[in-house]
């Protein structure tokens, strides 16, 4: 895989894609470039105003785009179920691409609508539930893929299986790293279960390296730490690559031919540049860890995958 860029994206005409967190940053770029290649894209965003503004921007940049917006709050499992239920009229029974992109990073401690620590609940559990609820569409679609966006910062921390919700101790960056390790473990276990079921659906992971998005400043902005926010913005301008560059790993994982299941695609250097297979921490490829997280996630979300028929939410 040498110097892969958006010119290598195959024609996506006739394919459909759901992208979470597509109102800005790498999510928006992912939606825009898929639409530019002919895919029908659905921007799934928490904020209606930002989602609709992104939709207008996308249509202005890609006048031929088939695109729409629907609300989705991954920090609220009722919203996840409601969103999945509305997709019956989105490209029929098929779904070619599910891009699990949305996320939060290094927030002060807070919980989701269902009482989960916000980073674990949003970054992992929300996407675990969404993927399970959309599994029937994915299984019914030849060539379907699920791409989950993780981070190289996953290497800061393995999961604490005895304290998934950081109830005993909370450190914002460690909690973020654990949620990103959970993303990789989810992809690993999903790949293993898809293969065991004989499915051709590919589950892969991606990371943006160090990309200049609003993700890094959200936490400090919540706390009113203006000087820290400005410092982060200065570092972004000096070091980070653009959202266009950060989206390349996701787009490559979603569209490159012959993508291997359980791949982890991101900048060659780890921070910026053309996408390639990336190093990942060894705990993210251990079957026992994946099985344990999967079991806990099913229990916490009450979404149960059935690879032979459908995913059900009791």
From TrEMBL:
List the source organism. Answer: Streptomyces auratus AGR0001
Q: Which family does it belong to?
A: Belongs to the short-chain dehydrogenases/reductases (SDR) family.
Which GO molecular function annotation, any one, does this entry have? oxidoreductase activity
- Keywords assigned: Oxidoreductase
The protein's name: Dehydrogenase
Which PANTHER family did the record assign?
PHOSPHATIDYLINOSITOL-GLYCAN BIOSYNTHESIS CLASS F PROTEIN, PHOSPHATIDYLINOSITOL-GLYCAN BIOSYNTHESIS CLASS F PROTEIN-RELATED
Matching entries from InterPro entries are given as: NAD(P)-bd_dom_sf (IPR036291), SDR_fam (IPR002347)
In terms of superkingdom, the source organism counts as Bacteria
**Pfam families (alphabetical):** adh_short (PF00106)
